[in-house]
Amino acid sequence: MFQPEKVCFGALLIFTFLFCVDTQICNDRQTLECLPICSPDCINGYCENPGQCGCNVGYQLDKTNTHKCLPICNNTCGHGTCVAPNLCECNFGYRFDNLTCQPICTEPCVNGTCVAPDTCECFTGYRKTESNLCLPYCSNGCPYGTCVSPENCTCNNGWDKDSSGKCVPHCDMDCGGGSCASPNVCECKTGYEKSRNGTCIPVCSNGCLHGTCIAPENCTCNDRWLKNNTGECFPICDMDCGEGGRCVEPDVCECLSGYENNENGTCIPHCSSGCPNGTCITPDVCQCNEGFNKTHLGLCEPYCSSGCGNGTCVEPDVCQCTTGYKMNWDNLYHPTCIPECEDCNGTCVAPEKCIYFFEPQSTTVDEPTECNDVACVSKADTATETETINYYTKVSSETTDSNYDENIKLNSDKVYAQNIW
Ligand SMILES: *[C@@H]1O[C@H](CO)[C@@H](O)[C@H](O)[C@H]1NC(C)=O
Ligand SMILES: *[C@@H]1O[C@H](CO)[C@@H](O)[C@H](O)[C@H]1NC(C)=O
Ligand SMILES: *[C@@H]1O[C@H](CO)[C@@H](O)[C@H](O)[C@H]1NC(C)=O
Ligand SMILES: *[C@@H]1O[C@H](CO)[C@@H](O)[C@H](O)[C@H]1NC(C)=O
Ligand SMILES: *[C@@H]1O[C@H](CO)[C@@H](O)[C@H](O)[C@H]1NC(C)=O
Ligand SMILES: *[C@@H]1O[C@H](CO)[C@@H](O)[C@H](O)[C@H]1NC(C)=O
Ligand SMILES: *[C@@H]1O[C@H](CO)[C@@H](O)[C@H](O)[C@H]1NC(C)=O
Ligand SMILES: *[C@@H]1O[C@H](CO)[C@@H](O)[C@H](O)[C@H]1NC(C)=O
Ligand SMILES: *[C@@H]1O[C@H](CO)[C@@H](O)[C@H](O)[C@H]1NC(C)=O
Ligand SMILES: *[C@@H]1O[C@H](CO)[C@@H](O)[C@H](O)[C@H]1NC(C)=O
Ligand SMILES: *[C@@H]1O[C@H](CO)[C@@H](O)[C@H](O)[C@H]1NC(C)=O
Ligand SMILES: *[C@@H]1O[C@H](CO)[C@@H](O)[C@H](O)[C@H]1NC(C)=O
């Protein structure tokens, strides 16, 4: 059944409730003040005005919920949530640091920045390696060197930086006809080979005896050596080495056996006898000088056309008379040795054997004679000058001068004796 007073009371209650929501009411019957009512309650704030929340320090009102104040984190939390003023609750893999959530890299990023958990981003000039390290980067790759900082390539030991910044090997020696391929190792160009000290020297495939191989297959002969048509170096001898010799070194003749070097180095035939008064024309063959004849011993002895009887042929056509004989100059060009007799007014037929073919006048054979430098004349004959007189030259047995004509001149007095005859 319907009770009007009960309905009226209920309507009043509803009204009162609605009023209280929209207006400030005194909900605390003990205080005299009236406080604003915010319903629902303000989170992290206070009811500033009825239904209007104010935020605590470090909080700000949530734009989507006017009853809620959210903490302020000065730096945005990033990968995390701001749970209290300047306090972030970070996501997994991040850590609260410097008022924000920063990614955690378990291995610290060197030369890079940790941009995400366990992810480094390299600084500029650095590149990540396969092992996730940031290493300085050199755009040329820095072969044979180490990239010590961005675009700074430092060469390994034994390598030098060239003008273009590349690392090139260094060889202590000059590689010559080659290039330095690795530290102290030359690589030779074709036509060159490695010498004992490691440099590259040109190769002359036929060798280069007595010369210098100055370029591949270019042998340049030493001084006083010349190249012949087979490309070999042969020595120059200023002298003719002769048929028995060979030029073996500059101005050095090597003689065949039977030949010897003369004072000029030429090879001349050698005669073991020495070949006096002759010319050694081939080994041990002596050709006698003119006026000399060869003996059965192969020696040259002077030849006297007169035969040089009773004398010795000492020089061509020069006889030396045997003791007791003297030169007869009757025939100037065919002098002969005739016996010598002292004080013989007759014919001297043998040494000191005087034979008379005419009767001496009034004197005996033994009568003394008068002698001058030229001739001996018997005393008996001096009175009768018209008579035949034999003049005997006192040709000395020591006229052995080699020059025949000279001999005659020197002995002109003797020749005179002959001429007046
Ligand atoms: C937050 O920043 C404001 C200004 O940028 C500064 O005044 C304040 O002190 C900072 N608060 C904290 C907790 O660092
Ligand atoms: C902290 O963060 C601020 C703002 O992001 C930055 O300027 C400052 O260098 C940081 N300090 C350190 C120690 O990381
Ligand atoms: C960082 O860079 C420097 C040169 O800038 C280099 O010497 C060093 O090795 C690098 N560190 C690492 C861990 O890569
Ligand atoms: C490169 O690095 C070396 C060694 O660290 C240093 O001495 C040199 O000055 C650097 N050069 C340049 C151009 O940075
Ligand atoms: C290396 O050897 C060559 C010939 O074998 C010589 O000419 C050169 O001077 C040598 N160089 C050095 C540095 O010893
Ligand atoms: C050898 O070298 C010399 C000197 O450099 C040069 O004059 C000559 O022409 C060269 N000979 C050959 C066959 O290359
Ligand atoms: C060139 O000279 C060498 C050395 O002297 C010699 O052995 C060779 O027979 C010579 N060749 C010619 C063609 O003359
Ligand atoms: C030696 O050489 C000189 C000068 O060329 C010459 O006058 C002389 O006759 C030579 N001697 C011989 C034995 O050939
Ligand atoms: C002949 O040889 C001999 C001995 O060697 C020497 O004494 C003499 O003078 C030579 N005679 C001539 C004409 O050469
Ligand atoms: C000696 O030599 C001469 C010419 O020098 C010659 O006429 C003569 O026949 C030779 N005699 C002998 C025995 O060889
Ligand atoms: C040498 O002299 C003697 C006289 O003593 C003479 O009989 C002989 O014919 C002479 N011999 C010659 C070859 O002249
Ligand atoms: C030889 O003749 C000379 C003068 O005609 C005379 O004086 C001398 O006594 C003669 N001698 C002899 C040995 O008869």
TrEMBL record:
The question of whether Glycosyltransferase is a record keyword is answered with no
Domain named EGF-like: residues: 33-70, 72-102, 104-135, 137-168, 170-201, 203-234, 236-268, 270-301, 303-338
Keywords (A to Z) from UniProt: Signal
> Does the record's keyword annotation contain Signal?
yes
Q: Which domain of life is it from?
A: Eukaryota
The stretch of residues making up the signal peptide is 1-23
Give the matching InterPro entries.
Answer: Cys_rich_tripleX, EGF, EGF-like_domain
The name of this protein is EGF-like domain-containing protein
Q: Which organism is it from?
A: Euphydryas editha (Edith's checkerspot)
